[in-house]
Amino acid sequence: MERKFSSEYQKLGLNIAYYRKEKHLSQIQLAELADISRTHMSRIENSDCAVSLDVVFGIARALDIPVYKLFEFR
C-alpha cells in the first residue's frame, strides 16, 4: 500500500512498540487497554494501516504517556 506519510506511520508504529515494551505489555494487553483488537494493534505497529486520532489517543492513555511522545520521531 502506497501512502503519502508511510515514513511517519512507520515511526509512529515503532514508538508505540517502544513504549509498549518499556511498560512490559504484550500487544494483546495493550490492545485490550486501548479497546482495539490485537490484530489492529499489530497492523499499527507494523505500519500496515492508517490509524485514527481516537485510536492514537486511546493508545497513549493506555500507555500512560502524553500523546506527543508517540509523535517524537527520532
Task: Kindly list the characteristics that best describe this protein.
globular; single chain
Main sheet overview? none
SS strand fraction: under 5%
Helix content: 55-70%
- Roughly how many Å apart are the termini? 24 Å
User: What is the overall pLDDT average?
Assistant: 95
The succession of helices and strands, N to C, reads HHHHH
Radius of gyration: 11 Å
Question: What structural class do you assign from the helix and strand content?
Answer: mainly alpha
**Can you tell me the residue ranges where pLDDT is under 50 for at least 5 consecutive residues?**
none
- What count of helical segments does DSSP give? 5
| Coarse morphology | globular
The count of DSSP E runs of length 2 or more, i.e. the number of strands, is 0
Written account of the structure:
The chain is an all-alpha fold. Helix content is 65%, strand content 0%. It is built from 5 helices and no strands. The model has no long low-confidence stretch (mean pLDDT 95).
Write the layout of secondary structure elements.
Blueprint: H1 6-22, H2 27-34, H3 38-45, H4 53-63, H5 67-70
Task: Summarize the entry for a quick read.
This protein has 74 residues and is mainly alpha-helical. The protein is built from 5 helices and no strands. Helix 2 (27-34) packs across helix 3 and helix 2 packs across helix 4 (53-63).
